[in-house]
Amino acid sequence: MNTKKIIPKVISGRIKMPPSKSVSHRMIIAAALSDGLCSISGVLLSDDIRATIKACEALGARIILRRQPGGLYKLSIFGCSMPDAKGKIIDCFESGSTLRFLVPIAGIDAKNTRLIGRGRLPKRPMKPYHDAFAGTTLKLDKPASQAELPLTLSGKLENGVYHLPGDVSSQFVTGLLFALPLIDGDSEIIIDGPLESAPYVDITIDVMDKFGVKIENDGHRRFSVAGGQRYKSADLTVPGDWSQAAFYAAMASFGGSLHLTGLDSDDVQGDRVIVDILRKMGGRLSYTQSGLFVAEADLHGTDIDVSACPDLVPILAAIGAAAEGTTRILGARRLRLKESDRLAAVTDTLGRLGAIIESDSDSLTIQGGKQLFGGKISAFNDHRIVMAMTAAASLCAHPVIIDGCEAVTKSYPDFFSDYETIGGIVV
Question: Which of 69, 84, 225, 362 maximizes the CB count within 10 A of its CB?
Answer without folding.
Answer: 225
